[in-house]
Specification:
With 110 residues, the chain is mainly beta. Helix content is 5%, strand content 44%. It is built from one helix and ten strands. Strands 2-3-4-8 form a four-stranded antiparallel β-sheet. It has a three-stranded antiparallel β-sheet with strand order 1-10-9. The protein starts with a strand and ends in a 5-residue tail after the last helix.
């Protein structure tokens, strides 16, 4: 894995998200708790809603356009909705958020 330092955990609001622009599109980095982060596709598969603008609750995010809910651990849509978002390995090290650059580069262009 090639870990990329994308910022400090305090750069992402609690129960919020920030975008990371990559050469293959944007990745959303979600902060669910004091020291817990997830990385996933920023685009809802339903109507292309910006998930980084959604509501973060528990280990889930709700799309701001049509209320689809996605599990940030698995990427799977919840409830009756059918779909999935890409998720990426991310970790914290000394308060810094590290994103697996190799995993992001394997995704198709957005």
């Amino acid at each position: 894995m090639s870990w990329i330092d994308i910022g400090h955990i305090d750069d992402v609001p609690l129960r919020g998200a920030r975008l990371v622009k990559t050469h293959v599109g944007c990745v959303a980095v979600f902060r669910t708790d004091e020291a817990e982060v997830f990385a996933a596709s920023n685009t809802c598969p339903h109507k292309k809603g910006p998930l980084s603008e959604g509501i973060v609750h528990g280990h889930k995010v709700t799309c701001p356009l049509h209320n689809w809910v996605f599990d940030l651990t698995t990427g799977e849509a919840q409830g009756a909705d059918d779909g999935r978002i890409s998720t990426y390995p991310v970790r914290l090290e000394d308060g810094r958020i590290l994103l697996d650059g190799a995993a992001v580069s394997r995704r198709s262009a957005a």
